[in-house]
Amino acid sequence: MTVENGPTAMTSQAIVTVEAYLDAFGARDMEHILSHFSPEATWTIPGDPALTAWAGSRTGPEEIRKSLSAFFAAVEPLAFELGTMVEADGRVLAPGRYTSRFHPSGQVLDSEMIMRFAVTDDLITDYRVFEDSLGITRAHLGHKDGKTHR
Predict the structure, then answer these.
(1) What are the backbone angles phi and psi of residue 71, rounded to the nearest 5°?
(2) Residue pLDDT, tens place only, 28-81
(3) Are the beta carbons of 21 and 33 closer than 8 angstroms?
(4) Beta strands 75-82 and 56-59: pairing type?
């Protein structure tokens, strides 16, 4: 994964931390990913975990690992573009766009999202993504009729 706004003299340490996390995420390097989170970090991906196993709120690296493992098993990244990150007081907003294929349905979803991070002492303490969770669920489950069923 390439981050468009690479470190410069003006880049905050919080953004450098988020960039390092995103690089590890792009490589799907689980241990490196988790090394960027504090022991009490919260991780929130809106959605119903009964329908998309990686959705929901998690606390701590081991719970985050479970979410990521489910995500990596179900989602094949096809494209990812990251916009310019913005930081204020250790909070980083990272807008982007992605295209992913969902398994087992094989459906492809192209969507925008924004990730919000809180960073303290060079570790992520809170992560939340804002994205089309209904579209993701439909693509994952293979619902073409626009309806999500349990």
Answers:
(1) -60, -50
(2) 999 999 999 999 999 999 999 999 999 999 999 999 999 999 999 999 999 999
(3) yes
(4) unpaired
- Reported for 23-29, long-range contacts at CB under 8 A and 24+ positions apart, including other chains, are 25/1, 26/1, 26/77, 26/80, 27/1, 28/72
Identity at 93, one-letter amino acid code: L
The pairs formed by 18-21 with CB atoms below 8 angstroms and a separation of 24 or more are 18/85, 18/92, 18/94, 18/115, 18/117, 18/119, 18/124, 19/85, 21/117, 21/124
Report the distance separating Cα 91 and Cα 62, nearest Å.
Answer: 23
C-alpha closest to that of 123 among 61, 32, 36: 36
Best CA proximity match to 131, nearest among 72, 62, 52: 52
Using the 8-state DSSP alphabet, how is residue 105 labeled?
T
Q: Confirm whether pTM is higher than 0.90.
A: no
Residue 79 burial by CB count (10 A; 0-12/13-18/19+): exposed, middle or buried?
exposed
Q: How far apart are CA 16 and CA 11, in angstroms?
A: 7
| Structural domains of the chain, with CATH | 13-74+84-94+115-131 (3.10.450.50)
Q: Is 41:58 a contact under the CB 8 Å cutoff?
A: no
